Amino acid sequence: MTDDRFRSEDGAREVREEYARLLSAYLPDVERTVVDGTHVLSAGPDGAPTVVLLHGSGGTSLNWASEIPLLAQAHRVHALDLPGEPGGTVVERLLLEPGAHAAWLAGVTDALGAPHAAVIGESLGGWVALDYATEHPSRVRSLGLLAPGGLGPRRTAPLLVAGLLSLLGAPGRRAAMRYFTGWTPSDEPGLARDLAAFSDLTFRAFRPRTDGLPVFADEALARITAPVSAAFGERDKMLDGPRAAAHARAAFGDAAVTLLPGAGHLLPDRAERVRAAAGR
Description:
Blueprint: H1 9-26, E1 31-35, E2 38-43, E3 50-54, H2 67-71, E4 76-80, H3 100-111, E5 117-122, H4 124-135, E6 140-146, H5 157-166, H6 169-181, H7 191-205, H8 218-221, E7 228-233, H9 241-252, E8 256-260, H10 270-278
Helix pairs in contact: 1-7, 3-4, 5-6, 6-7
């Protein structure tokens, strides 16, 4: 059966094979399981405080390759491939409506024996984390948000710029990635270069969702009881970072909300921010 997340079956196969290769190369010791159709990377000692990691749109749990080994020293870590994204999860793409992703995440974390966890999400993953925390506040020990959707409006003009750049082949796709995220990958062999190449492959092969992430109502955000840490890029091309940061401060009161001058959608010092959000 054709996987309609991808533009072609050949593209789907290429992404699957490269994903598996990179996981073996950079996360050889993680446990790989499929829970009710959801692909999960797990690491760290059983019984340790649990951390759930949720990647962004067009990404996979490989996006957390630098953070998983660090967190796993003192936590039980579960990185989940989101439904409808290019990773190993075969659950159909869910509607962006309150409760849909929260119900999915509650089911997976129950199956993993992790009903109470620190939940950390980036971009789309941040939106999913917010949905979960608003629907199931007692299940969230702490909430870490990295340039999350759901707190400010999406910028639309940059989508047109990225679309035009992508017509220029591989160089254009890399330029679109730099423009959108603010990330210039290293040319040195290693994880950063391989992630950039994998992003180019998924950008070419994958059909991303185009619907915007709804902004959460204040009354929904008021249901969150866990400590929140949130960071935004001042020059984020995908969402309005300053407006989202202001909304977060108003919604969460004493939350640690940071607006990073000059930063784009991919934030600097991410490993330290993730470790701080995971807590003890």
